[in-house]
Amino acid sequence: MDFSLTPEQELFRKSAREFAQQELEPMAAILDKEHRPAIENLKKLGALGYLGMSISEEYGGIGADALSYAIVMEELSRACASTSTSVSVQNSLVNDVFNKFANDEQKQTYLPKLATGEFIGAFALSEPESGSDASAMKTTATLDGNEYIIKGSKMWITNAGFADVFIVTATTDAAAKHKGVSAFIVEKDTPGFTIGKEEDKLGIRGTSTCEIHFDNCRIPVSNRLSDEGMGFKIAMVTLNGGRIGIAAQALGIAQAAMDEAVKYSQEREAFGQKISNFQSIQFKLADMKAQIEGARLLVYKSAWKKDVGQDYSTDSAIAKLVAGELASQVADQALQIHGGYGYIRDYKVERLYRDARITRIYEGTSEIQKLVISRSMLG
């Protein structure tokens, strides 16, 4: 395997890092404190093509490969995990659904707007009583002539407060269980569709996470994605790819936490010398470095396998499991190196510590990743 990046991938890293440092880093703590998304930064990212990385040039995107996308996610996450979360939802959970499962008319209607950030997307799968067990969803879609009537609620929907278009899963045949789930396109101003309260979260506070509700919400049959009964498959295929983006996000958070720990250890003095001179600190930093480099290889491998057309479902689960767990471990040790200062909001590491925690939960908990991995081993 060639471990070198192409000139184009290196350019993605350079440009994403520059944007993150100049535009995202100065805003990250403010967004976290005020609990609001930076819509203006998302519009800038859209203008630069980062919201349409997986969309082909035919529809106004840049047609980047999965490895380039992972690189960009890592760089953006080092500065602001909240903003990178919205980028991940747009690319992994919305654009990819349209790429793989939409018909030509649906692609022509939505992909050009998603590619530029004119439209922001959201992915509505989880419900109050069905998170990891997506096949137990209660939201229904009943065919009535040339329309579906959607009833029910979804929960934990990222981007919901400002999204323009939603990918929604609903049960069309309860007796068929997961094989009776279908997927639909719902625009924000559709009658009967409402946005619920914003969740007050521990981390990634610069995102919008809401409940959404469907009260006899009517949509045309033409808004169904693929055939009836394909919704569960659409969701699972989409999450397989989405895990690469979240693994890359976790990697970026871990890298940022290590960077903060290195910098602080070279500034802080104790017992008459820099704390970076103490072997206990050096060992913590060495562990961080070794673990991050290992996780990066797993993330890149899963993205590479997707790019070359190999089955990457197990690899993406491994990458997300390892990188997600690692992000919390590294952030914890980085905060420990900061001592009491790491526990106050004046220091970036405190935000990284909180942001890291979600990477073990969304787009499949660590426990779900272990199920995916073990089943691939056991057949």
Strand segment count? 10
Over the alpha carbons, how many angstroms does the gyration radius reach? Answer: 21 Å
Overall CATH architecture of the largest domain: Up-down Bundle
Given the helix and strand composition, which structural class is it?
A: alpha+beta
- Succession of helices and strands: HHHHHEEEEEEEEHEEHHHH
Query: What is the CATH T-level topology of the largest domain?
Result: Butyryl-CoA Dehydrogenase, subunit A, domain 3
Total helices: the number is: 10
Question: Mean of residue pLDDT?
Answer: 96
CATH superfamily of the largest domain: Butyryl-CoA Dehydrogenase, subunit A, domain 3
Strand content: 15-25%
What composes the largest sheet? Answer: 4 strands, mixed
CATH class of the largest domain: Mainly Alpha
